[in-house]
Amino acid sequence: KSHRIASIPGDGIGPEVVSATIQVVEKLAKTLGTFSIDFEHIPWGTEYYKQTGRYVSEDCLDTLRKYDAVLFGAVGSPDVPDHISLWGLLLALRGPLQLYANVRPVRTFPGTKCPLNTATNGIDWMLVRENSEGEYAGQGGRSHVGQQWEAATEVAVFTRVGIERIMRFAFETARSRPRKLLTVVTKSNSMRNGMVLWDEVAAIVAEDFPDVTWDKMLVDAMTVRMVAKPESVDTIVGTNLHMDILSDLAAALAGSIGVAPSSNLDPTRKNPSLFEPVHGSAFDITGKGVANPVATFWSAAEMLVWIGEKDAAAQLMGCVERVCAAGILTPDLGGTSDTQGVVDAVCLEVEKL
Amino acid sequence: KSHRIASIPGDGIGPEVVSATIQVVEKLAKTLGTFSIDFEHIPWGTEYYKQTGRYVSEDCLDTLRKYDAVLFGAVGSPDVPDHISLWGLLLALRGPLQLYANVRPVRTFPGTKCPLNTATNGIDWMLVRENSEGEYAGQGGRSHVGQQWEAATEVAVFTRVGIERIMRFAFETARSRPRKLLTVVTKSNSMRNGMVLWDEVAAIVAEDFPDVTWDKMLVDAMTVRMVAKPESVDTIVGTNLHMDILSDLAAALAGSIGVAPSSNLDPTRKNPSLFEPVHGSAFDITGKGVANPVATFWSAAEMLVWIGEKDAAAQLMGCVERVCAAGILTPDLGGTSDTQGVVDAVCLEVEKL
Ligand SMILES: CC(C)[C@H](C(=O)O)[C@@H](O)C(=O)O
Ligand SMILES: CC(C)[C@H](C(=O)O)[C@@H](O)C(=O)O
């Protein structure tokens, strides 16, 4: 089989980790010989914005629909306000492409150390984030700008369709894991509309999954549980903002945000799904050649699973884990390797397959 | 001096921890002889609601304005939806009384253990939560209820006045602490209105505090910093929801939510401020006599500071810390004492003053 992937390296360390990943995945395809893969470069990002006034091309959705998947680096630049760059590129794709399921596996990875002494076996969680509405619906505004009586709103929009589809996806995800455990996170004690609807829809969808054990938690109390009883947690589902927060927390508790991957999925497969590291553009280390490529390797492995190359994905992850376990790590994980050193080590492992 | 305190024990373990605290504070006043204090019982809560159809009396704000402060237990009951009980009582006071500064000191307390390997000296943070608007403005609604196309909103409302006053309070709080360090938490990359206004107001207010070192962080990244670099954190300020989440996380990271106190302050002193443990009604242990009273003791100490009894507050905290350090702890902290055991031990310490 042959796959066409759109690569959007974007800003900051995005180009470094995406180039690292393309090297590794191309080596994998060549070595295994079971599939071929073609990465096509798409130059969207802050440079493109400075030249054209837009972060993406006008026909961006149609452009991406020609591909089987999208590999994304990062967006964000110190000289553009974050809300311009993020809504210009990443958030201009997640919602409009209906990539409603943001899946974030979190575990204590070889080479990382769980900082919690409550988690004797490290952490292994699956976080499912609603990715198309809620607090990221993009609504709200400012009135009386600059006056003492200025008022601004941020409007979270929740739909029954939006909640039901992510809930179903989350229950299916929980069912696919050995423990079949799901926690539905809301904040329905202080938020009386969309959050109460979340609770209602969760109860309805749960009826179709009698084999899944589920419970509900308030987002604030969930952070306490993640810290104090990490072993009681398995799969978590929540709103766009709640899971944005909990997924960063989870990655930090597991050992490092530097290895955390994410999949932005359209489970209906009408649109190509988008795979990206969680870490962001990290301008403090951009251009130094020391960015940790592991989160992007792992994101690419998730992409391979999604496009039907499950075996190849498993082989790739095996290679990456062996390299990390051998201590070939970038400085953020306490190692002394640079990005290319990690790439070369993974390619060597791939050659041995 | 003589002080009149409204006591609202409320639901669940609220009555147990409030009664424990009244015993201890009355003993303190009697022993020190430097002030007198009078607690008057106000029966608001779920029982009151079942009898009257309301969680509070109709003239609740005027009722409370007759007191110097309010000591609050907890609200919430398994047989009433949380959004009814919370908006019926606690949230009916915080906003309407303009208790805009919710102050939550968090530290690794004697008898608790910080679960983080990254914090060798335990944790000592000061969290300042905007407490009158934002995500808790109470706006939003549901349309097409029950239909497949149902849509619901939660509307966060931010005002320049509301942001400026909490920001000023936070900078002053940071200034009063040895490290003079403040982190302003927002989410202004995905939220483009109220959150951007937060950033703008922070920059303006900061100009009046050149002696305070401050930085900005996104709420998701802040969780990573709290876990990975706890020693880099001192005072934090953020929105109602963001700090609701971060304060629970902070308490868990410090060692236990069972000791975490909070002050709901009206810094203009037009209204009485309200002091409450962070833990909530905890129906699973209600009536068993094992609730941890330390969070309420600490909240009462904060109340004593607020009403001008700084010395008495310090003496009280000294007694409580000695008791905890001696291992006289409730089961949630791994101890074998019941609530009254802790009360008796603290009273014994008070007698020695
Ligand atoms: C960059 C930012 C807009 C983004 C988000 O808030 O979703 C990031 O934090 C993430 O988690 O993917
Ligand atoms: C009980 C609940 C409404 C409350 C809140 O969300 O503010 C609690 O979690 C808190 O932190 O005081």
Overall geometry of chain A: globular
Please summarize the sheet with the most strands of chain A: 10 strands, mixed
| Termini gap of chain A | 19 Å
Unreliable stretches of chain A? none
* Overall average residue pLDDT of chain A: 97
Notes on the structure:
Two copies of one chain form a homodimer. Chain A is an alpha/beta fold. Chain A has helices spanning 14-32, 46-52, 60-65, 82-88, 90-94, 160-175, 194-206, 219-228, 240-254, 294-306, 310-325, 339-351, and strands spanning 2-10, 36-41, 69-74, 101-107, 124-130, 134-143, 151-159, 181-186, 213-218, 235-238, 261-265, 273-277. Chain A has a ten-stranded mixed β-sheet, with helices on both faces. A two-stranded antiparallel sheet of chain A has the order 6-7. In chain A, helix 1 runs parallel beside helix 12 (339-351), helix 6 (160-175) packs across helix 7 (194-206) and helix 8 packs parallel to helix 9 (240-254). The longest helix of chain A is centred in the N-terminal third of the chain and has 19 residues, at 14-32. Chain A is globular, with a radius of gyration of 20 Å. The mean pLDDT of chain A is 97. Chains A and B meet through helix 4, strand 6, strand 7, helix 7 and helix 8 of A and helix 4, strand 6, strand 7, helix 7 and helix 8 of B. Strand 7 of chain A pairs antiparallel with strand 7 (151-159) of chain B, so a sheet runs across the interface. One 3-isopropylmalic acid sits between chains B (86, 90, 244, 278, 280) and A (189-190, 220). One 3-isopropylmalic acid (IPM) sits between chains B (86, 90, 244, 278, 280) and A (189-190, 220).
